[in-house]
Design a protein that fits this description.
Protein name: Neutral metalloproteinase
Subcellular location: Secreted
CATH class of the largest domain: Mainly Alpha
Function: Extracellular zinc metalloprotease.
Main location: secreted
Order of helices and strands: EHHEEHEEEHHEEEEHHHHH
Cofactor: Zn(2+)
Distance between the termini: 23 Å
Oligomer: single chain
Number of helices: 10
CATH architecture of the largest domain: Orthogonal Bundle
CATH topology of the largest domain: Neutral Protease, domain 2
Structural class: alpha+beta
Length: about 350
């Protein structure tokens, strides 16, 4: 496979299939029905992406008016599945009465701002790509996804999941899949797929921290906090601080993410466990960022961004490949200082060797 020779069809969701599978098998039809319908819709959308050549959102939306300024459009699907739906808020429009629309608009803006201010990147493709989102997708749809061209948000079923625009890191996570698509284009299977998911968790967390002005020590390092309904025993979808502890619920089961290679999960499901084993590189980033302290997007985030966009990361990269490049990037940007030591030690602690 040639590197960066065009975009691979991609369909990335925030809620892993194994969570929805568990819900679909619940004895309560109120819980099982929406999960089954979500799985069916996800399977359909995933197939559509495989049949479509992704050419980027600029093929279906106008370019931003000025470099370095966002060009956002939020659409309302009206609980249907046609995309993008009816345009309800364009760049510069005042907030309306629909809080979901306003949150989506703000989350797109926060993602654009972090990329530009911290890394000098003009939108997710680096060339002013318009940011397109659709809200109120389908009925009781328990997911949010990036389909290679735009963001899509469900409203949740109200029983297990709430509105998917509530956590800003969910918005950032899915848009970060777009950044990966336009840079390293990591294969969505096995360890490279887990790295793809982890990079999205990393930048989703950084977008939340940036928008809240939090230091690494102040952050909760949770992905999707506020998304789970009150009946669920859990705090979020994933924890970068303590992978495997985000939820432990009678219906959802226990968070299966490992924190180190000792507990690496070998499975053919979920594209080889991309949402599960991402806990390992997630934890490495958390360890590096909290060791360095301060704002995580400034040093640890910069190192991860350098690797993602530097041109050396193979599409089929393993954890060892990514870890080795972070050490190289830390040395190139910061020399032999504490950044290099923090990154090296972080990978050691999660059991990933660097070459």
């Amino acid at each position: 496979m040639t590197r960066h020779g065009g975009f691979e069809p991609v369909f990335c969701t925030i809620v892993p299939p194994h969570v929805l599978d568990r819900l679909a098998q619940a004895g309560d039809p109120v819980l099982a029905g929406p999960a089954r319908r979500t799985l069916q819709r996800d399977a359909y959308e995933r197939t559509q992406r495989r049949l479509t050549t992704v050419v980027g959102a600029r093929a279906v939306a106008p370019l931003a008016a000025e470099p370095g300024t966002p060009h956002r459009t939020v659409h309302d699907a009206g609980h249907g599945t046609g995309l993008p739906g009816r345009a309800v808020r364009a760049e510069g429009d005042e907030p309306g009465q629909d809080a979901t629309v306003n949150r989506a608009y703000a989350g797109l803006g926060a993602t654009f701002e972090l990329l530009l201010s911290a890394y000098g990147r003009d939108s997710i493709d680096g060339a002013g790509m318009p940011l397109v989102a659709t809200v109120h997708y389908d009925r009781d749809y328990n997911n949010a996804f990036w389909n290679g061209e735009q963001m899509v948000f469900g409203d949740g079923d109200g029983e297990i999941f709430l509105d998917f625009t509530l956590p800003i890191d969910v918005i950032g996570h899915e848009l970060a899949h777009g950044v990966t698509q336009h840079t390293a284009n990591l294969d969505y299977f096995g360890q490279s797929g887990a790295l793809n998911e982890s990079v999205s968790d990393v930048f989703g967390a950084l977008i939340k921290q940036y928008s809240l002005g939090q230091t690494a020590a102040e952050a909760d390092w949770l992905i999707g906090a506020g998304l789970l309904a009150p009946r669920v025993t859990g705090t979020a979808l994933r924890s970068m601080k303590e992978p495997g502890t985000a939820y432990d619920d009678d219906v959802l089961g226990k968070d299966p993410q490992p924190a180190t290679m000792d507990d690496y999960v070998r499975t053919g499901r979920d594209n080889g466990g991309v949402h599960i084993n991402s806990g390992i590189p997630n934890h490495a980033f958390y360890l590096a960022a909290t060791t360095l302290g301060g704002h995580a997007w400034e040093r640890a985030g910069q190192i991860w961004y350098d690797v993602l966009t530097g041109g050396e990361l193979r599409q089929d990269a393993l954890f060892t490949d990514f870890a080795t490049l972070t050490v190289k990037a830390a040395r190139a940007r910061f020399g032999q200082g504490e950044e290099l030591l923090a990154v090296t030690k972080a990978w050691e602690r999660v059991g990933v060797r660097t070459l």
